[in-house]
Amino acid sequence: MAFQSEAAEWSLAPSLSVKGVYNSNLLLTPLPHSESYGYWVSPATEFAGKTERLDVSGRMAADFVGYFGGEDRQFTNVFAPLSVSYRTEKDSIGLTGGLTRDNTLLGELQATGVVLDFTQRNQWTVNPTWTRSLTEKLSFQSNIQFSDTTYESARLVDYRLVGGSGGLLYQLSEQDQIQLLGSYTHFRTTDSPLGFQASFPGINMSLTHAFSESLTGTLNGGPRFLSSTSQTPFGDITARDMVWLAGASMSKKFERAALHVSFARDLTPSGFGLLIQTNRGELTGTYRISETLDFTLSILGVLASGKTKAAIGGTFPDSSYVSLMPKLSWRFLEWWQTEVSYAYRWREFDTAAGSAQSHATMFMVTYSPPKLSFSH
User: Fold this and answer.
1) 185 and 199 in contact (C-beta within 8 Å)?
2) Which of 212, 243, 250, 331 could be 292's S-S partner, Cβ–Cβ 3.0 to 4.6 Å?
3) Is residue 149 within 8 Å of residue 160, measured between CB atoms?
4) Helices in 9-158 by DSSP H: which ranges?
5) How many angstroms separate the CA atoms of 144 and 198, rounded?
């Protein structure tokens, strides 16, 4: 009998970035404030391994951050994502997840358009997936979602999200595929004296069409049947509602550029201790000016509202958030790259607090030595 072991290829890609930042209104507050200055030192290592059936990739990165001026703060961000997939003739099993330790103005504000406090957020996620090919055109897909989020602030509420989905994917033609999924998600707070929990099963259908090799579009939508329970000093309050969620996206590739446009209405957990309905539109464009010079433009707009109005003993106000960021990247040496960017942010609440805006600039230098690779 002859035994054959699969060949494996592994690689490591370390890097180190240093950047200086300026922000006219770091906390996006309508109250009187001062300008803030800061520095970021960001070491990172990306790793990857591959065999004929197994793919493994991940990243270990940290940000050592200091702010002074209007805000005098020091904190550390940690990013440790991991992705694993294993393929057989008919099955594909995957696992994604890891740890994200960031600040709320970096992650949660961009996701939901709202944030109560400038503090550290710790989020663990685990998402296993399984895909089974039933025929040449039909496959079954399933996934499980788990996330646990905690904050280092008494003003924010920790929460846990558990859910899953399953359904069918059918390849109608070379250009079209349709997907039908059933899903269930359960959200609950974990440290609030007055707890909140909600569950929302639902159905989602999506259609993807390839107009050409460089242009692809996707439409999706479906209902969610929301049931929530809020604890109050006078007893529990139960509410039921049906929410229609939908999304659309389009990606276009040019010879030296790429453009991506998307819109999505979703239910998003937040540190307010409840679910937020977000209407999120995003445009991202990149253009390669030369072999060493790239330009990127990102525009984001979010309209947010609470699906249950009670939040930490108060009322959740509707809000609007807009951010615009052009960025120029220049690889001036083989292992060296510099980035210059500007960011404009605007936020408004439907309360007497009014609106706030900020202007920020960033200059960053990154050193990326040659990738280390080996095989056996």
Assistant:
1) yes
2) 331
3) yes
4) 108-112
5) 17
Q: d(Cα 101, Cα 107) in Å, to the nearest integer?
A: 9
| C-alpha span between 306 and 183 (Å, rounded) | 21
H-state helical runs in 103-175: 108-112
Tokens standing for residue 123: 């989020």
Is residue 4 helix, strand or coil?
coil
Residue in 273, 214, 279 with CA at minimum distance from that of residue 247: 279
E-strand spans in 190-288?
A: 196-199, 202-210, 215-232, 235-253, 257-269, 275-288
The predicted-structure confidence for 341-363, as pLDDT tens digits, reads as follows: 999 999 887 765 678 899 999 99
325 Cα distance to chain centroid: 17
Q: Are 97 and 82 in contact (CB under 8 A)?
A: yes
Which pair of structure tokens corresponds to residue 231?
């604890």
Please say if the pLDDT value at position 17 is more than 70.
yes
3-state secondary structure (DSSP) of residue 51:
coil
Beta partners for residue 293, in sequence order: 330
- Closest CA relative to residue 56, chosen from 27, 21, 22, 95: 95
Tell me the pTM.
0.86
b/e code 2-40 from CB counts within 10 Å (16+ = b) = eeeeeeeeeeebbbebebebebbbbbbeeeebeebebeb
Q: Where are the alpha helices (DSSP H) in the chain?
A: 108-112
Distances (CA, A) of 9 to 80, 88, 167, 179, 192: 21, 19, 34, 34, 47
Whether the CB-CB separation of 186 and 162 falls below 8 Å is answered with yes
Residue 17's nearest CA partner among 338, 269, 319 is: 338
